[in-house]
Amino acid sequence: MVMRAVPTAIERTPASAPGFEDLLVAHQGPILHYLKSLVGNHHEAEDLLQRTNLILWQKRSGFEAGSNFRAWSFAIARREALSRFRQQRRDQRLFAHAEVHGAAVDSVEGDETPLLTMRDCLSRLPARDQELLLMRYGTKRTLHDYAKQLNRSPGTLKARLFKIRENLRREIEERLKETEPALGPRIPSPNG
Q1: Do 78 and 116 belong to one domain?
Q2: For residue 10, what pLDDT is reported?
Q3: What's the CA gap between 164 and 169, in Å, rounded?
Q4: CA separation for the pair 60, 10 (Å, rounded)
Q5: Structural domain of residue 135, as residue ranges?
Q6: Are the C-beta atoms of residues 39 and 48 closer than 8 Å to each other?
Q7: pLDDT tens per residue across span 61-77
Q8: Is the pLDDT of residue 128 over 80?
């Protein structure tokens, strides 16, 4: 019986051939420049580079030796940048939401029913409608820029905003009518 040495995991994976580490090191500058072009901030690009390096290393077994390392690494870097953008947008939305509602609550004197009704109606909107309202009223971005990001026409977004505002107005008015006491003299009950 002939015994053969069992290859180690490192020997079995083509990505762990001596060239992978060399490719990773050689592409640090181009990946950093690419990330900087996406985020516009050197420090944030460096943070994203570290995250990208970690993912590249974790996925090294999926890299086929001889294929385009630059394209593969840039695709992963792009996904990381998009993930960061989404997280920042969520954080900004939460912060703006808390800030707007906190300021509104602080400034309201007396009955808070209209504010609470509006807040409840806003929270019932689909996430995409909430995002559109936040973009329009909670940021300094233009509708044109946002439309370009979504690959939609500004007119489409304007129409959508109009529809959202009209539906919100109608729902808030209906809900407030339900909570208002009936107008006119109170008729005493027969029991006293």
Answers
A1: no
A2: 35
A3: 9
A4: 11
A5: 108-180
A6: yes
A7: 999 888 999 999 999 99
A8: yes
